[in-house]
């Protein structure tokens, strides 16, 4: 074996051009595959970092689809929603299949120690069974127990290792220390280990867990119950199958539906579980991860076919060498083994280079991948990935090396040893094989390029949508004061404070307009709905509600929302003046068809006069069409929280210190949360589509380049094998142009065959991408035309050099050498 390795390295060093090209192709193919596999492994394949994670389930409510109702192909049919607290309490009391069960409710708290600025801490309210479900315990102190799930006894907290080190300097005496939160002082009873995180690997991890204590209202069922916010996790008992657990929940569903027929949140719903791993990842994320792995797998197959073609071409020049060795007594197994060792050495060196490329690629992917993808921080080239790469290296070495090695290891000695018999033993079978490999490369490249064109077209359609406002130079931030609604009566409105805040914000250097919005910032995803009536038009408004937001006068100017008719809010629209409302174009068309709404009276939190119509704004995302929306002035509507919006003359991030100082001056115990520019918000919403477009575009480009290399290699081989024939043709009067045409015709036959096969394959495979495209037909002819045109141009470019070489053959020199 040592001699075979030495011979392999010697042979590869003697063919520097071949070795460089082959290593380049393998490095790109294996490197890209390794990088994407590391992402898929971390996000989809790898289990959760908990003991016996396969017994962990998520539990929630799932709506039962009505017969004949349309099905959203992009929706996850196994998804589960949140639980009403009443349902969780009954399930926890009646279930018989879980070893432990816990409620989880996300949230945030404000931490402010004397003399320090308030800081937002991401928290979770969890029941005492939370730590038992995950089989995790604090490394310092202890977890809280059911004794703390009582109002008045619940002011205890378990904190994360990160918070303990960052905020408390890793104080070993932290247990028993009381930390001031906006809900009161909480005693630290434990510190989790540095590796613990739940939810798993999210961009902004949870830093504190406090007891979940249901309110008295959440312990009883009535028609006014409206809270559905709990997540639930559980651990199956040993020996309990998933189907048995679901059957138990089905029994509980039927029992509660019969016992509480008027409870609104149990109608047309059932309680369901799904593996916690699947719940964390989500079916849609898993689908597009597998899609990316499949696409990069095609790149790898193209690379293997290309290297196999290069080996076949190189085999022609080595036939005499192999023939001589066979004539001197070398057996076929010895020849085959040495040739396969060369292929495996080539694959191994390519893999080492590919790991470097993958290491760089993983860093790029981590920065580019959307924030919503779970477990991003765990993406790494760990031992699992490296072992997979080793297996991949062995597989690729065998894949691209076996056929050339088998063919070359059985030479025709009579033909091979003839003086001047160049390539005689190659035969038609080898030429057909090389041509077939090129056809396969072109066909697979067509599939990649069609996919890339579809995703690019979909992204282009998305980016052409006008959001209804101008997102440039706009800074946003959330201001969420803690307000106690437990007393039954509505607490005093914070509208005066927010109006004062806007006045301060407008004086921050660089700010040209400032506003506060409550009830749903554009592109924010939140919604506030209220009943809406138009006197005399009950046919249009009966049972209807409208999205409504409360804004300060400069809101539309700050965002650049166009005024269609009427006027915008003014400082004179106060609590003591007649109540007014502004509606968007969709509301005007829906509730006032063919009429002018200006001056009309509508019912929205009391009677109001429509004073203006503004353009539609995309409220949730660019993919969700605007709906009817109404704007109310903050001075005439009580608000208790809001989002700050400021437009600046320069970089909006430069205004952050002034915005933070303004908020602290008006609301000294409230931290500034979710500080982002509006362009960042839109960028995050389109991040997945941009990422998919970039990845498919990159894979398509790699497939195109590698295929072009393959076409060039085959045509260069054809020219070298037909050099004598070309010389004879030119001696008999063939022109250089006719020779070039002959070579290009040979290339066109292979390319057209690949285009035809690839086009049909892409036509059928493109349906798999349907759920990932936005307003784009999977069989859009423009995508196919773009892919075919790109490959035709690449094929022509790859064939020109061999064609010109053929045209430069000197017939006198060629005939003289015979």
Fraction of residues in helix: 40-55%
Q: Please, what is the oligomeric state?
A: single chain
- DSSP summary, beta strand count: 21
- Which structural class is indicated by helix and strand composition? alpha+beta
Largest sheet: 11 strands, mixed
Straight-line distance between termini: 41 Å
What does the model show?
The chain has about 800 residues and is of the alpha+beta class. The chain is built from 23 helices and 21 strands. Strands 11, 12, 13, 14, 15, 16, 17, 18, 19, 20 and 21 form an eleven-stranded mixed beta sheet that branches. Strands 1, 2, 3, 4, 5, 6, 7, 8, 9 and 10 form a ten-stranded mixed beta sheet that branches. α2 packs antiparallel against α8, α2 runs antiparallel to α10 (about 385-410) and α9 packs antiparallel against α10. The longest helix is centred in the middle third of the chain and has 45 residues, at about 285-325. The chain is globular, with a radius of gyration of 34 Å. The model is unreliable at about 420-425 (pLDDT under 50).
Q: What would you say about this model in short?
A:
With 818 residues, this protein is of the alpha+beta class. The longest helix is centred in the middle third of the chain and has 45 residues, at 283-327.
Labels describing this entry:
818 residues; alpha+beta; 11-stranded mixed sheet; 10-stranded mixed sheet; 23 helices
Which SSEs are present, and which pair or pack?
Blueprint: H1 2-14, H2 16-45, E1 56-63, H3 85-94, E2 98-111, E3 119-126, H4 130-134, E4 140-141, E5 156-159, H5 161-168, E6 178-181, E7 184-191, E8 208-211, E9 231-236, H6 242-259, E10 269-275, H7 276-281, H8 283-327, H9 332-368, H10 383-408, H11 413-416, H12 427-463, E11 474-479, H13 495-505, E12 511-518, E13 529-531, H14 538-541, E14 545-551, H15 555-559, E15 563-566, E16 580-584, H16 585-591, E17 601-603, E18 607-614, E19 629-633, E20 642-648, H17 656-666, E21 672-677, H18 678-685, H19 687-721, H20 723-731, H21 736-765, H22 781-807, H23 811-817
Parallel strand pairs: 3-8, 5-7, 14-19, 16-18
Antiparallel strand pairs: 1-9, 1-10, 2-3, 2-9, 4-7, 5-8, 6-7, 11-20, 11-21, 12-14, 12-20, 13-14, 15-18, 16-19, 17-18
Helix pairs in contact: 1-9, 2-8, 2-9, 2-10, 8-10, 8-12, 8-19, 9-10, 12-19, 12-21, 12-22, 13-17, 19-21, 19-22, 20-23, 21-22
């Amino acid at each position: 074996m040592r001699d075979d390795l030495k011979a392999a390295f010697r042979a590869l060093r003697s063919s520097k051009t071949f070795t460089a090209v082959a290593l380049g192709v393998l490095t790109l193919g294996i490197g890209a595959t390794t990088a994407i596999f590391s992402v898929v492994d971390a996000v989809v394949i790898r289990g959760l970092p908990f003991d016996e994670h396969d017994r962990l389930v998520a539990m929630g409510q799932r709506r039962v689809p009505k017969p004949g109702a349309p099905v959203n192909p992009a929706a996850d049919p196994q998804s589960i929603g949140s639980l009403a607290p009443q349902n969780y309490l009954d399930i926890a009391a009646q279930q018989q299949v879980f070893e432990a069960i816990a409620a989880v409710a996300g949230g945030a708290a404000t931490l402010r120690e004397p003399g320090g600025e308030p800081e937002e801490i991401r928290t979770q309210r969890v029941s005492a069974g939370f730590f038992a479900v995950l089989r995790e315990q604090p490394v310092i102190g202890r977890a809280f127990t059911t004794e703390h799930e009582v109002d008045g006894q619940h002011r205890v907290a378990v904190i994360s290792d990160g918070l303990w080190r960052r905020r408390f300097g890793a104080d070993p005496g932290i247990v028993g220390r009381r930390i001031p939160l906006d809900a009161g002082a909480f005693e630290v009873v434990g510190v989790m280990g540095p590796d613990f995180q739940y939810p798993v690997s999210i961009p902004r991890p949870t830093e504190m867990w406090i007891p979940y204590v249901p309110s008295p209202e959440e312990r009883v069922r009535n028609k006014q119950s409206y809270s559905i916010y709990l997540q639930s996790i559980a651990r199956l008992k040993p020996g309990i199958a998933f189907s048995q657990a679901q059957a138990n929940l089905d029994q509980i569903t039927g029992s509660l539906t019969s016992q509480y027929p008027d409870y609104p949140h149990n109608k047309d719903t059932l309680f369901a579980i799904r593996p916690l791993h699947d719940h964390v990842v989500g079916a849609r994320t898993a689908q597009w991860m597998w899609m990316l792995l499949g696409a990069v797998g095609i790149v790898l197959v193209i690379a293997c076919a290309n290297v196999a073609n290069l080996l076949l071409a190189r085999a022609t020049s080595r036939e005499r060498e192999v023939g001589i060795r066979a004539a001197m007594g070398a057996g076929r197994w010895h020849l085959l083994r040495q040739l396969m060792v060369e292929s495996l050495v080539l694959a191994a060196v390519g893999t080492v280079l590919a790991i470097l490329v993958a290491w760089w690629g993983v860093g790029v992917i981590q920065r580019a991948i959307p924030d919503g993808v779970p477990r991003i921080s765990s993406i790494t080239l760990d031992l699992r990935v490296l072992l997979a790469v080793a297996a991949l290296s062995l597989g690729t070495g065998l894949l691209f090396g076996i056929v050339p090695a088998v063919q070359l290891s059985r030479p025709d000695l009579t033909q091979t040893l003839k003086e001047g018999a160049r390539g005689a033993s190659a035969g038609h079978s080898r030429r057909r094989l090389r041509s077939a490999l090129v056809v396969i490369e072109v066909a697979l490249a067509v599939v990649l390029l069609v996919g890339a064109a579809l995703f690019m077209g979909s992204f282009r359609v998305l980016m052409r949508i006008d959001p209804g406002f101008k997102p440039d130079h706009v800074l946003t931030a959330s201001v969420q004061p803690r307000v106690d609604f437990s007393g039954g009566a509505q607490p005093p409105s914070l509208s005066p404070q927010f109006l004062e805040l806007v006045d301060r914000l407008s004086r921050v250097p660089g700010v040209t307009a400032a506003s506060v919005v409550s009830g749903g910032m554009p592109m924010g995803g939140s919604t506030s709905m209220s009943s809406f009536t138009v006197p005399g038009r009950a046919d249009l408004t009966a049972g209807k509600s409208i999205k409504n937001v409360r804004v300060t006068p400069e809101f539309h100017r700050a965002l650049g929302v166009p005024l269609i008719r009427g006027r915008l809010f003014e400082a004179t629209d106060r609590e003591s003046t007649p109540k007014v409302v502004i509606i968007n174009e969709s509301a005007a068309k829906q509730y006032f068809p063919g009429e002018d709404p200006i001056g009309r009276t509508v019912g929205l939190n009391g009677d109001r006069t429509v004073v203006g119509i503004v353009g539609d704004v995309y409220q949730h995302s660019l993919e969700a069409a605007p709906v009817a929306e109404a704007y109310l002035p903050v001075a005439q509507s009580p608000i208790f929280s809001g989002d700050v919006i400021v437009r600046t003359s320069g970089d909006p991030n430069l205004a952050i210190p002034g915005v933070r100082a303004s908020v602290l001056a008006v609301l000294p115990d409230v931290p500034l949360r979710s500080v982002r520019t509006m362009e960042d918000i839109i960028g995050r919403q389109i991040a997945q589509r941009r990422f998919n477009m970039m990845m498919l575009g990159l894979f398509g480009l790699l497939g195109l380049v590698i295929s072009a290399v393959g076409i060039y290699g085959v045509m260069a081989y054809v020219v070298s094998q037909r050099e004598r024939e070309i010389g004879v043709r030119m001696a008999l009067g063939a022109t250089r142009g006719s020779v070039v045409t002959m070579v290009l015709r040979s290339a066109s036959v292979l390319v057209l065959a690949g285009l035809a096969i690839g086009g049909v394959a892409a036509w059928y495979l493109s349906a798999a991408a349907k759920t990932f495209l936005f307003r784009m037909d999977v069989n859009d002819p423009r995508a196919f035309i773009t892919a075919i045109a790109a490959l035709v141009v690449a094929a022509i470019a790859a064939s020109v050099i061999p064609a010109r070489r053929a045209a430069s053959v000197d017939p006198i020199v060629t005939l003289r050498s015979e």
